[in-house]
């Protein structure tokens, strides 16, 4: 998988699609009514097992990159993961285990996040879920999903790029918790898209250049690609800073 796409389901647009923003759009401020959950409950078979989000990327765990991009966008932030929570202590996040046994997939982590957020503060109305292996998430993810939800009245707002939806990068109404629990426990619904399509939903697209912000790390080659991308981004920042310093010195 390359940095230009994530292999998720393609979407056809239509009335529930929201166009891409202009690249110069500034990142809006955090949303006070949105909680966040990073989903890291998967088994990581393609990376040899273990906690994928704790793999090192540019000298820090992948989880640290994800959390740094998400924290400014939400009021509170937690991590969905199973097993001993102490291994995530350095992240400083509340660890939420699945509330449904058997590792049923991301929907179980979303349910754990919904139930946790509902207990935290009455002002919260929404949960933003993101995968724990996506280190380049948009800095305007929460704001644009929430704006699209408000404009459409949808119960779920889903991120997209390169013509594909990324169903675990989505904004969920907290009152979906009871129906999601029923879908998981009684109906054995495990596919995220299958659950999303039951309710009014809206798609919000982001540009996929110069990098797909929903690029996720599944294989060792993806980790190497992410390292190269971070190096390119650092080189570009250095070049911009030198150019700025040069212009200021010449005035």
Give an account of the 3D structure.
The chain is α/β, with parallel strands linked by helices. It has a single domain, classed as Spore Coat Polysaccharide Biosynthesis Protein SpsA, Chain A, CATH 3.90.550. It is 32% helix and 19% strand. Strands 1-10-8-9-7-2-5-6 form an 8-stranded mixed sheet, sandwiched between helices. A two-stranded antiparallel sheet has the order 3-4. Strand 3 (56-57) and strand 4 form a beta hairpin. It is globular. Mean pLDDT is 87; it is low at 4-15 and 18-28.
- Find the structural class using helix and strand composition: alpha/beta
Number of domains: 1
- Indicate the low-confidence ranges by residue numbers: 4-15, 18-28
* Oligomeric state of this protein: single chain
CATH class label: Alpha Beta
| CATH topology term | Spore Coat Polysaccharide Biosynthesis Protein SpsA, Chain A
Distance between the termini: 46 Å
CATH architecture: Alpha-Beta Complex
The count of strands amounts to 10
Helix content: 25-40%
- Walk across the major sheet and give the strand order: 1-10-8-9-7-2-5-6
- Round the mean pLDDT to the nearest integer and report it: 87
CATH evolutionary superfamily: Spore Coat Polysaccharide Biosynthesis Protein SpsA, Chain A
Total helical elements: 6
What are the secondary-structure elements, in order, as H or E?
A: EEEEHEEHEHEEHHEH
Largest sheet: 8 strands, mixed
C-alpha Rg (nearest Å):
18 Å
As a percent range, the share of strand residues is 15-25%
Shape: globular
């Amino acid at each position: 998988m390359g940095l230009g796409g994530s292999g998720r389901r393609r979407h056809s647009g239509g009335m529930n699609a929201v166009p891409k923003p202009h690249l110069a759009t500034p990142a809006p401020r955090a949303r006070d009514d949105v909680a966040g959950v990073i989903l890291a409950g998967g088994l990581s078979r393609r990376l040899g097992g273990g906690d994928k989000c704790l793999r090192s990327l540019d000298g820090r765990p992948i989880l640290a990159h994800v959390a740094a991009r998400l924290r400014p966008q939400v009021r509170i932030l937690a991590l969905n993961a199973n097993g001993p929570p102490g291994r995530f202590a350095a992240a400083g996040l509340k660890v939420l285990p699945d509330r449904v046994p058997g590792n049923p997939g991301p929907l179980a982590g979303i349910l754990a996040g919904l139930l946790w957020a509902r207990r935290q503060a009455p002002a919260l109305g929404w949960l933003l879920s993101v995968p724990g292996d996506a280190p380049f998430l948009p800095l305007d993810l929460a704001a644009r999903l929430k704006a699209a939800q408000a404009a459409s009245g949808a119960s779920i707002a889903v991120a997209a790029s390169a013509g594909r939806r990324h169903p675990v990068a989505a904004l969920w109404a907290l009152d979906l918790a009871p129906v999601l629990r029923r879908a998981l426990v009684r109906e054995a619904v495990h596919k995220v898209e299958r659950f999303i399509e039951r309710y009014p939903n809206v798609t919000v697209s982001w540009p996929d250049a110069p990098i797909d912000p929903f690029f996720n790390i599944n294989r060792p080659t993806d980790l190497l690609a992410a390292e190269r991308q971070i190096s390119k981004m650092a080189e570009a920042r250095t070049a911009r800073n030198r150019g700025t310093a040069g212009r200021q010195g010449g005035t």
